[in-house]
């Protein structure tokens, strides 16, 4: 049984536990990120919205989305990426969901069409404008991520935004009107200048930075020399599977794509994609 189970909860009901969120950071103390809900709400907090998230170990969990962080004795703010790298996997799933709902709540306080204050629809994960009837649901941005290979070599690249020294797979957002398959070929061509073939879908992963759905692929090199896209790619190289550079975090789908191919080349059991 999964410890974390997302579901709609009525925020008008009392009790439960709560997480406090602001811009992909969570309030935490020595016991973690879950606080008694009624107690925390009694503090002087800049609350934007409250949402019922689901159940963790059978307990009801709620979200307090804040307009700014606040200081509390014995507590500190920790980033979602810190929990991804260091925390418990089930807690990260909970916080991943919480940050996506919190981001949606903070970005849809007002109607984008008429400016009216949006209202949460009871029993539904949606925001509603009573003036123009516009509704907004939590946003998902489909993105492709792909490992391009050539025999024992994998094509990895660095963005200027990466942690120093780390190389990863290529990725990009799906544009309006294009298929994911077309997006893969286009992004690879734009970012590193090569053509691909034999595209294979391997799996997907929700990526809450802030609201992507990563669709993972493996592709074989077809033709072309590496030509890096200015301002997007800092470095791109072919690496032998026996001599890889520092790689992304093990819970990421980028790392999974690399680990699957290395396992295939070396005859090892294939890893399972983190949930």
Automatic annotation (TrEMBL):
The keyword Magnesium applies. Divalent metal cations. Mg(2+) or Mn(2+). Binds 1 zinc ion per subunit. A motif (Nudix box) lies at residues 172-193. A divalent metal cation 1 binds at residues 171, 191, 232. Its EC number is 3.6.1.-, 3.6.1.22. CDD domains: NUDIX_NADH_pyrophosphatase_Nudt13. A divalent metal cation 2 binds at residue 187. GO terms for cellular component: cytosol. Its cofactor is Mg(2+); Mn(2+); Zn(2+). Residues 138-261 form the Nudix hydrolase domain. A divalent metal cation 3 binds at residues 187, 191, 232. It catalyses: NAD(+) + H2O = beta-nicotinamide D-ribonucleotide + AMP + 2 H(+); NADH + H2O = reduced beta-nicotinamide D-ribonucleotide + AMP + 2 H(+); a 5'-end NAD(+)-phospho-ribonucleoside in mRNA + H2O = a 5'-end phospho-adenosine-phospho-ribonucleoside in mRNA + beta-nicotinamide D-ribonucleotide + 2 H(+). InterPro entries: NAD-cap_RNA_hydrolase_NudC (IPR050241), NADH_PPase-like_N (IPR015375), NudC-like_C (IPR049734), NUDIX_hydrolase-like_dom_sf (IPR015797), NUDIX_hydrolase_CS (IPR020084), NUDIX_hydrolase_dom (IPR000086), RNA_Hydrolase_NudC (IPR022925), Znr_NADH_PPase (IPR015376). It is an enzyme of class 3 (hydrolase). GO terms for molecular function: magnesium ion binding; manganese ion binding; NAD+ diphosphatase activity; NADH pyrophosphatase activity; RNA NAD-cap (NMN-forming) hydrolase activity; zinc ion binding. Substrate binds at residues 81, 124, 137, 205-212, 254. Belongs to the Nudix hydrolase family. NudC subfamily. Homodimer. NCBIfam families: PRK00241.1 (NF001299). This is NAD-capped RNA hydrolase NudC. The lineage of its organism: Bacteria, Pseudomonadati, Pseudomonadota, Gammaproteobacteria, Pseudomonadales. The gene is nudC.
């Amino acid at each position: 049984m999964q410890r974390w189970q997302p579901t709609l909860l009525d925020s008008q009901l009392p009790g439960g536990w709560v997480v406090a969120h602001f811009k992909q950071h969570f309030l935490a103390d020595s016991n973690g990120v879950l606080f008694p809900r009624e107690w925390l709400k009694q503090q002087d907090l800049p609350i934007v919205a409250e949402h019922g998230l689901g159940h963790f170990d059978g307990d009801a969990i709620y979200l307090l989305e804040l307009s700014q962080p606040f200081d509390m004795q014995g507590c500190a703010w920790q980033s979602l990426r810190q929990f991804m790298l260091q925390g418990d996997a089930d807690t990260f799933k909970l916080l991943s969901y919480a940050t996506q709902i919190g981001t949606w709540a903070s970005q849809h306080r007002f109607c984008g069409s008429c400016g009216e204050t949006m209202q949460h629809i009871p029993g539904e994960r949606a925001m509603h404008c009573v003036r123009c009837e516009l509704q907004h649901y939590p946003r998902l941005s489909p993105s492709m991520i792909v490992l391009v290979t050539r025999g024992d070599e994998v094509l990895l690249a660095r963005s200027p935004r990466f942690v120093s020294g780390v190389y990863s797979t290529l990725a990009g957002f799906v544009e309006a009107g294009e298929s994911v398959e077309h997006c893969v070929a286009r992004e690879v061509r734009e970012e590193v200048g090569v053509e691909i073939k034999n595209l294979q879908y391997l799996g997907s992963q929700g990526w809450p930075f802030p609201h992507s759905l990563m669709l993972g692929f493996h592709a074989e090199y077809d033709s072309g020399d590496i030509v890096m896209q200015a301002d997007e790619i800092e470095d791109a190289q072919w690496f032998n599977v026996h001599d890889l550079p520092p790689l992304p975090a093990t819970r990421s789908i980028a790392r999974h794509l690399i680990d699957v191919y290395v396992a295939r080349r070396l005859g090892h059991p294939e890893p399972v994609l983190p949930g």
